[in-house]
Design goal:
By secondary structure, this protein is mainly alpha-helical. Helices cover 72% and strands 0% of the residues. The protein is built from 13 helices and no strands. It is globular.
Amino acid sequence: MLGTAFLIANMCFGTAIFTFAIRCKYIGLVWYLVLVLIGAFGNYWTILRLVRVCIPHQEADYATLVKKIAGKGAGYVIDIFTTLYAISIVLSCSCSMFQGVGRFIEVIIKNGQYETYSDFKSDFLDRNDVKFPIIFVLMALLFPMCILRDLSKLHFTGYLGVFSIFFGILVVVIQCNEYYNYYKDNEYIKEDEDTHVNWVNIGKGFTKELEFFKGAATIFFAYTLHNGILPTFKEFQMNEAGYKKFQWSTIIGMSIVCVFSFTSTICSFLTEPINPEDIIVFRKPIHSGYDVLMSIAKISFTLAQFFTIPPYHLTVRLGIENLFKNKKPFGTLGNVLFTSIFLIICGIIVKAGNTYSIIGKCFACFI
């Protein structure tokens, strides 16, 4: 039960939790926390409704379940969108993981001299002698986990992913007071509202940049795990007793998500309330020299991306099997070939993470 809870938590927020701070600048910290709560409750309620429907039909595949209820056409549409959503998750995480490892290596080479994530323009990762060895090592490490057929065998990725995110958040919390004091002493101007912390001003979110909708879409993208949640229900008996156990796993998992999201959002935003970084662990240090704690946070961020990929890879494989009406899973050779080709593709196209993220948000809102 606890393993399922951690797997739910890991699949739910992933590393999107480190991007919430920048949305608070336009929506307001309080309102964004309200959005986080609405997203968590909506996710909890819809997951349980979905699982409840599984019991009378004795079916734990999302698309097949939709086909039985709403017809084949609706089932195929859901299958396509959930598969594309899972693919966008895997590609986005692969990009972030590759960038994180590459940046960390470059920081070591440059003796701690680095820029912020948004200003990072180095061609270091474009060098073939750097890019391909990193890709090869990462894909080789992912391969044994991605060829597994049973989601229950990936429970350890949930534990490791959640703990990785926990350490990243812990660093942000530890440094929050120091960064906030630096902001108050050096950046805050009482007469200039642009330097004030945006607590409740939601008006900035409804400009032509549509920041409110971007923020909401980010939460939907982070919280959408419906296509991957049903395989976890197979581990329980598909009856009322199993439903009750699964309900408690969901409550624990979503509680972890809310606690982590609130802590990370508040501390990350107060760290840089004027110009937050897109990804808070890549913020610019306030002191010169090498920031050891933030380097730990970067490693945690990269590991969290790493452990998010295997469960969603399994979802991609199941979705493709359903699309081609393959009632039997891939054979051993087919599974190895599919996993190898897919991971190679993920490794090759690692420079368009934002594009995959935007596509994933669209599919998430549809789902």
